[in-house]
Amino acid sequence: MKKKIELHLAHWVFVDDVKFFGKGRLQLLELIQETGSISKAAKEMGMSYKKAWRMVDELNTFGKSPYVIASKGGIHGGGTEVTETGKQVMDAYHRLGEKLQTIIEQEKNLLDLI
Amino acid sequence: MKKKIELHLAHWVFVDDVKFFGKGRLQLLELIQETGSISKAAKEMGMSYKKAWRMVDELNTFGKSPYVIASKGGIHGGGTEVTETGKQVMDAYHRLGEKLQTIIEQEKNLLDLI
Questions:
Q1: Which of residues 74-93 of B touch A (CB under 8 A)?
Q2: How far from chain centre, in Å, is Cα B102?
Q3: Concatenated DSSP letters for B42-105?
Q4: A chain contacts of residue B89, beta-carbon cutoff 8 Å
Q5: Do A16 and B9 touch (CB under 8 A)?
């Protein structure tokens, strides 16, 4: 049976030697954007609200400005949303992932050696 | 106090959805090459001999040919060495890491957004 051989990669932002942002937090912010709610986002990720809240709190505390804020008013009567800072970080992290993936595609010949 | 912000990355080869090769196994092979011994390599990594041996066994079993073999004779009266296949995988994995690192260097502006 032919083996399935794949290259995987991961990238993270560290702040003062502590993991600050990676795939999990990107997904959390995407789901907050989508659902307007930390608890709904947590639920979709199969994560406790407490854990999701702690992640958001870390992003808001150690980022240069908050990534997630409570929004007021609007037709839905308020909710939770991702700030411009948060969106910029999401975009930049995502774009970097795509560039790294391009390199991985170019270097697939490594897999023939395995 | 200014925060230290850094990008880190990791890459792995998966075989049939199981992690097969990454930074740890690269280091293990490097140390086997250097010391001519699985037990010395394990010791330098602070790992049990059993664990190191299991890793070598996996590399030898699931790679296209063995990565590590017992060498016979020579002035040291034999020992353990990394095969050509093993060396090629080490080189390719290492080179890929350098290419990915180049992208990371080019994309450092992401860090200003954090």
A1: 85, 88-89, 92-93
A2: 19
A3: HHHTT--HHHHHHHHHHHHHHSSS-SEEEE--TTTT-EEEE-HHHHHHHHHHHHHHHHHHHHHH
A4: 110, 113-114
A5: no
Q: How far apart are CA A49 and CA A28, in angstroms?
A: 11
**Residue closest to A80 by CA, chosen among A22, A35, A111:** A35
In the sheet that B5-15 helps form, which strands lie side by side, from edge to edge?
Answer: A18-21, A5-15, B5-15, B18-21
Tell me how far apart the alpha carbons of residues B30 and B89 are, in angstroms, rounded to a whole number: 12
Interface predicted TM-score of the whole assembly (ipTM), two decimals: 0.85
Measured over the CA atoms of residue A91, residue A96, residue A101 and residue A102, the dihedral's sign is positive
CA distance B30 to B36: 10
pTM: predicted TM-score of the whole model, two decimal places: 0.84
Each residue's pLDDT tens digit, B38-95: 999 999 999 999 999 999 999 999 999 999 998 776 565 668 999 999 999 999 999 9
pLDDT per position as a tens digit, A26-43 = 999 999 999 999 999 999
